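User: I'm putting together a teaching handout on how multi-component assemblies are represented. Below are the sequence lines for each component of a complex, exactly as they appear in our records. Could you produce the 3D structure of the whole assembly as structure tokens, so the students can see both representations side by side? Please keep the chain order the same as the input.
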Amino acid sequence: MSAISISGLNKHYARVHALHDIDLTVERGEFFGLLGPNGAGKSTLINIVAGLTRFDTGHVAVLGHDVVTAYRQTRRLIGVVPQELAYDPFFNVREVLRIQSGYFGLHKNDAWIDELLAALMLTEKAGANMRALSGGMKRRVMIAQALVHRPEVVVLDEPTAGVDVELRKSLWAFIRRLHREGHTIVLTTHYLEEAEALCDRIAILNHGKLIALDTKQALLMRGIGHTRRVCITTEQPLGRLPETLEKKVRRQEGNQLELRLDKSTDSVMAVLDALRAHGAVITDLNMEGADLEDVFVELTQTQKV
Amino acid sequence: MNLIGLYTLFCKEVLRFGKVLLQTLIAPVITALLYLLVFGHVFEGRVQAFPGVSYTMFLIPGLVMMSVIQNAFANSSSSLIQSKVTGNIVFMMLTPLSHLEFFLAFVLAAVVRGILVGVGVYLVALVFTAVPIKHPGFILLFMFLGSATLGAIGVIAGIWAEKFDQLAGFQNFIILPLSFLSGVFYSIHSLPEFWQRLSHFNPFFYMIDGFRYGFFGVSDTAPSVSLAIVTLFLVVLSGITLVLLKTGYKLRD
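Assistant: Of course. Below is the structure of the complete assembly, with chains in the same order as your input.
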């Protein structure tokens, strides 16, 4: 039985066709990534699985239970960390977690709440009002809220959006731990680095369409076939680049320049010549294969064409 | 039925208003007290709605019921709009709570607040004059029906409104005029015939008239008629609210 199965899913918002005929299966125990640019339909898809959004046609099930007709079962089996930072300003952290447990029919859940607080480094804040917490702490409380009922499937909608590097690393460690403990993890993100570091299998959505669904390795192989990354260090920081190179820039910071080149049409030598002609003195050069970002850009740009 | 879930949401809603008692309980009692002072002072001895009943005595049940109505509405509507605006409603929507459990929790919490405010207004009003209680059963029944009805309307308004401004409009242009023009401050028999007839289309009139019957044993309309109309109103509004919740209107778009 699959953790999540979606077939023929369509969703419209007024005249916008938000999701087009989505067919997708997440297996039990998987670490699954759902990628796409803003507005691609990731959150809509997640919200439909969570029962937060209605859909037009199709079938969505969590561990074999239909999310519409058997919503009580599916909501007990799934824990969702929403994307937007939200909290109830009337209550403290422990009260929030007790209330959330109660909604799921759990009357005495303090032992598990204490474990969650410890795991998410919130024990000292258990008595603090939600308003008094930092943004990072509020996000950790949201993760605890999603886990109070010990769901088998955990869905995190952009969990590290807007958090600092340290917190991102600690959240990654926590999510990995959940996965090791047997939870199925579904992660939506637009940080490709995050999907690359964590996920086994990845789906890419663009304009409401599923444009790729494969293992991380297979997707990277697709990218390697077409693009290469060239990292160039120059003696002095580079200013504005020649127009021909600007389109190929992946990152530019100080005297570091990272370009994405198409293997079949772009010559590394031509790029270096263009930079020299621009007055740059090149001190180091490094070439690497594609990463998920390249695959993502390639796939989403193909869609635009 | 997820009884623990229902009980939790109910307790959360009661705790929510319990944490801001100054605003949710004390302020409405003070407001009602001011009405009593001003209107009682101006009209005492000049207006007699029912034989043997002074104006201040007449006014008290009306003010109690008006407070019940307004606060029951405020409880469910403001809680919902706050949850929607701050986004924390998502934590209720993600749970296995059914639309019926959601409805019952919000309405019952509104009933608790409405009745607490009503009792508060009544106790404070006793300082001014004693009010007889002829039919306590009617008093409790109309208090419950009135607060439950307004709790349900509050849920509808909370679901419909997308910002505080819209909710304020609902409160100021629907709830407030209907409660003011329902016979709180006067007997409708003192009105010209046209306005008397119009008052019979105001469901809040029946809540206040039936409630007042519980105190004095006299009313503008037969209490059984008031009871039937208020009950029907509650049933219809509950039905509408449950349909909105079941379809996820503006909550699960």
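A couple of points students might notice: The interface with chain B takes residues 13, 50-54, 71-73, 75-76, 80, 82, 84-91, 95, 99-107, 145-146 of chain A (CB under 8 Å). Chain A has a mean pLDDT of 87.
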